[in-house]
Amino acid sequence: MNRWSPLVVSLLGLSACEPKVPDPAAVTPPEYLRMTQSDIVLQRDELTVTLAPEVGGRIASVVFNGEERLFTRADTDGNNWGNVLWPSPQSHWGWPPPPVLDSEPYQLSLTDTGVRLTSGEEPQLGLVFSKSYRLPSLANTLQIDYELQSVSDREITVAPWEITRLPAEGQIFFPKGDTDYYTGDFASLPFTEQQGISWYIYNADDIGPEHHKVMTDGEEGWLAYQAGDYLLVKVFANVPAELMAPNEGEIEVYADPTATYIELEQQGYLATLQPGETLNWQVIWIFDALEADLNRAQLTARARQLAGLASNAAD
């Protein structure tokens, strides 16, 4: 289903860790991109994506069909909002996430296809993150190209990990892979399976006071979320179970103990980087409006259709 290479590791010079903002006259950004005093806004069709360069280069807002779909900074006093990228496994850094990668300012570079945001060097892990965002011609689609570059003088083993925070509602579903559900130190979530698809329907009565999480292997390279009148499908290269990060999952779902948000998460291949090498990972988000009361078979068919469209639209 995914036509892009699942894992690309390329050798780059150290100068790649020091991107420079180009002369604005030398770059003509796409017409769907505009910059405000603090944010970058990508807008096309019914989709508006707002990026926060000063807060980890994260996705701060996603408005689809006129409604906010993410759990945003306005919803919390903490740092757990929006969409972020972390290095996996978590056992390499514990908690909280490394600020240089998660929440400190990223450097901006404009391109003729979108925008690239690059972190500073994380000294303990020896990593630099870059996030390139663009809106492909396929309607209501966001393409994200992540790069994890080693700036260490030693070998690094790492996988990319995208965390999308959403309001505490709706349901999550994906094709189940080869491993059982794993919770680690977390309380579980009540997943069920039907015709090879794993389903989790959010219910606040099931949440708290513990942190809740389930990790497992997926199949087909997509992860879907439905709430009310819309569907979000995230599309990525499928990861065989044997290439997942240790004590992690290709697919992970988290619910916070205060029942205010959930996390829709997926991870890429675990790779060993030599000094100067870069791990590339592409994720496509595609949004679609839904008719009322679609059943599970219809939702699964729609998600598979959207995943196919997204894969064919990827650059």
Automatic annotation (TrEMBL):
Superkingdom classification of source: Bacteria
Question: Which PROSITE patterns did the record assign?
Answer: PROKAR_LIPOPROTEIN
**What InterPro entries does the entry give?**
DUF4380
Recorded protein name is DUF4380 domain-containing protein
